[in-house]
């Protein structure tokens, strides 16, 4: 069953401060995604990967086209759905993990990570114990658990960001560069965590420039160039 059907999706920006200069970041994008599949989104810098992900999460409103998402309560067009429906899907089904961590200052790492799980489970102790468990697996030094992530290194922030995104086991995960600043061992831990989510049914769209991460994770790759899909390939390990 397809969890996602994208047809004729385009996105253009009108830059008013530059005399209405038009930038087409996505042009006639068409693809489908099966439930439980992991798709890798690849392509050079500026090819439109993050724009596509943001259109799916509705951070960007697509200029044309349809994004049919099969939610637990039936099909919904993420381009046309009203804001309440989008907020509800973001709370309960779709999680977006951006490339960089942005957090409220002065909230401890462990609380940043458990936030999404606490919202669903309403059990602070359970959420905190799950959060500790993830931080331990990800090798975040114990001393940092109660510290504020604002001052963390790039790789430490990335681990917090990934842990926060996956702790509540979203149904559909959009994840932008999850392993870019990580060492080989931690990269493997993150990849294993995402594979465990997949095993539990999560569908994942992942942006990565890292061949190792893509090889280990993806069932299929979609390659973008200048805002267009130039190839769709099944992974060689399938
Ligand atoms: N909010 C925006 N306003 C104007 N132009 C934008 C906006 N967001 C993206 N673009 C443009 O769309 C194009 C695609 O950008 P996008 O961020 O999707 O690329 P990307 O493939 O994610 O690149 P990278 O690998 O560097 O993250 C770029 O030319 C970018 O300048
Ligand atoms: Mg990007």
Automatic annotation (TrEMBL):
Pfam families: ABC_tran. GO terms for molecular function: ATP binding; ATP hydrolysis activity. InterPro entries: AAA+_ATPase, ABC_transporter-like_ATP-bd, ABC_transporter-like_CS, P-loop_NTPase. The keyword Translocase applies. Residues 4-238 form the ABC transporter domain. The keyword ATP-binding applies. SUPFAM superfamilies: P-loop containing nucleoside triphosphate hydrolases (SSF52540). Keywords: ATP-binding, Nucleotide-binding, Translocase. Coiled coil: none annotated. Belongs to the ABC transporter superfamily. This is Phosphonates transport ATP-binding protein PhnL.
């Amino acid at each position: 069953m397809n969890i996602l059907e994208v047809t004729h999706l385009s996105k253009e920006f009108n830059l008013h401060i530059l005399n209405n200069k038009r930038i087409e970041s996505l042009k006639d994008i068409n693809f489908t995604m099966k439930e439980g599949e992991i798709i890798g989104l690849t392509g050079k810098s500026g090819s439109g990967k993050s724009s596509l992900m943001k259109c799916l999460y509705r951070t960007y409103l697509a200029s044309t086209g349809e994004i049919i998402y099969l939610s637990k309560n039936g099909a919904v067009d993420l381009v046309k759905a009203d804001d309440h429906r989008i907020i509800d899907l973001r709370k309960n089904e779709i999680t977006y993990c951006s490339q960089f961590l942005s957090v409220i200052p002065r909230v401890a790492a462990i609380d940043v990570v458990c936030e999404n799980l606490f919202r669903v489970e309403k059990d602070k102790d359970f959420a905190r114990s799950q959060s500790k468990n993830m931080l331990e697996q990800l090798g975040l030094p114990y001393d940092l658990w109660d510290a504020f992530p604002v001052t963390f290194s790039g790789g430490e922030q990335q681990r917090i960001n990934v842990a926060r995104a996956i702790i509540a086991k979203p149904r559909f995960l959009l994840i932008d560069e999850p392993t870019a600043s990580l060492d080989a061992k931690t990269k493997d831990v993150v990849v294993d965590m995402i594979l465990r989510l997949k095993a539990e049914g999560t569908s994942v769209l992942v942006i990565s420039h890292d061949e190792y991460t893509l090889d280990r994770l993806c069932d299929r790759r979609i390659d973008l160039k200048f805002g267009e899909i130039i190839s769709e390939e099944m992974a060689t390990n399938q």
